[in-house]
From TrEMBL:
This is NAD-dependent epimerase/dehydratase family protein. It comes from the Bacteria. Pfam families: Epimerase (PF01370). InterPro entries: Epimerase_deHydtase, NAD(P)-bd_dom_sf. Residues 18-243 form the NAD-dependent epimerase/dehydratase domain. Keywords: Carbohydrate metabolism, NADP.
Length: 316
């Protein structure tokens, strides 16, 4: 049976699948797996790997399927994740224009649209936990990547208001099976991997007191699952922070690596060269999302540490 025929059958029976774009990536793949484990029918889409649909997320045929109501939800995780990308037009097309095209198709069929935003939209923040309404009190985006994400958030709110959609401002996502090669691998996964393999950890000079909100990838997947299953009139709609609600300093993270290794680790200090584009601290107020899903939105430091230990062991 062709893909079109399968989708036609799903529309007739009402057993609509969820479309996950960017499914060959770390976060998209984790979301797909969590949905499948929970019994949700999933159609995967990516330009890489071996998804069910090998196509661009904004392919006209894909958008046509969304418009005719072939999916119960679209979970959009595709796009450019390189925070150092400087091509503003490229970022606009992939991180703003294409998601908006998908959102428009979803709106036509009253299909739930869930997309990945970024905590980087806040820029330099100080050390207080930030709420979604605090954007005006921060520097705002520090780079082109963050600007493309903020523009998407703003246009989603302007065009679709309180419609059937939700954007999640991810902090620093980590988990097992995250690729640790390349520039965009999370600092926590790189350090856990390097210490597990007895390889040197590199840290920018003067940043041991800098901190990040690290969030477990399965927590994101479970929040998305909850939103897909929540069709009440009071379901979460709009833009929300998506972190753990707990900040871990780089110094603390180094100590975790030492503890997991049970021995001294190699640490190499490198010159700090990023300048004003560096986000020294992330601290997230998860109160708004917790109003909807209180059991899925906060991790204490000890549970984060144990999850990090699990990830560390997976790299040995």
């Amino acid at each position: 049976m062709s893909r079109t025929s399968r989708l036609d059958s799903a529309i007739v029976t009402g057993n609509l699948p969820v479309l996950v774009t960017g499914s060959s990536g770390f976060i998209g793949g984790s979301i797909s797996n969590e949905l499948k484990r929970s019994g949700v029918a999933v159609v995967t889409l990516d330009v890489n790997g071996t998804p069910d649909i090998k196509a661009d997320a904004a392919d006209p045929a894909v958008l046509a399927d969304v418009r005719r109501g072939a999916y119960s939800a679209v979970v959009h995780q595709a796009g450019i994740s390189n925070t150092l990308e400087k091509d503003e037009e490229l970022l606009y097309q992939h991180n703003t224009a294409k998601p908006l095209a998908i959102a428009d198709a979803c709106s036509s069929s009253a299909t739930l649209f869930i997309y990945a935003s970024s905590f980087s939209v806040y820029g330099a923040t100080g050390r207080r936990p930030l709420r979604e309404s605090d954007l005006s009190t921060t520097t705002g985006p520090l780079n082109a990547y963050a600007r493309s994400k903020l523009l998407l958030d703003e246009r989603m709110s302007c065009r679709f208001g309180g419609g059937n959609w939700i954007g999640l401002r991810y902090t620093n996502v980590f988990g097992p099976r995250e690729p640790i090669s390349g520039r965009m691998a999370s600092v926590i996964s790189r350090w856990l991997c390097n210490s597990a393999r007895r390889e040197p950890i590199e840290i920018f000079e003067g940043t041991e007191d800098s901190g990040r909100d690290f969030v477990e990838v399965h927590r994101i997947a479970r929040v998305i699952l909850r939103r897909i299953l929540d069709d009440s009139k009071d379901s979460a709609r709009g833009v929300f922070n998506m972190g753990s609600g707990t900040t871990v300093t780089f110094g603390e993270l180094l100590n975790w690596c030492r503890e997991f290794a049970g021995e001294a680790i190699k640490v190499r200090t490198v010159p700090f060269h990023i300048g004003e584009q560096y986000q020294h601290w992330t601290s997230v107020d998860m109160g708004l999302l917790a109003q909807h899903y209180p059991d899925q939105t906060v991790s204490d430091k000890e549970s984060l540490k144990e999850y990090a230990r699990y990830c560390w062991a997976s790299h040995k």
